[in-house]
Specification:
By secondary structure, this protein is mostly helical. 80% of the residues lie in helices and 0% in strands. The chain has two helices and no strands. It has helices spanning 7-10, 18-68. The termini are far apart. The mean pLDDT is 84.
Amino acid sequence: MYEGISSADLFGQGSDNSSLDISASDLINRLSFQAQQDYSSLKSIAGETGKKLSTLASTLMTDLQDRIL
């Protein structure tokens, strides 16, 4: 039975995954930071949209009242 050679063995990287772990940790931290920024942006956009919809509804109600009276 033939057992293949791993790419790590082929390229002399051995089984030391410490640099890979640091890179994965760094990636997770960066993704987490970006997700927090995206969440803050979406929250801000939602707040602004709510204000605009409120103003639109108020204007619509005022216009309807003016037409009725």
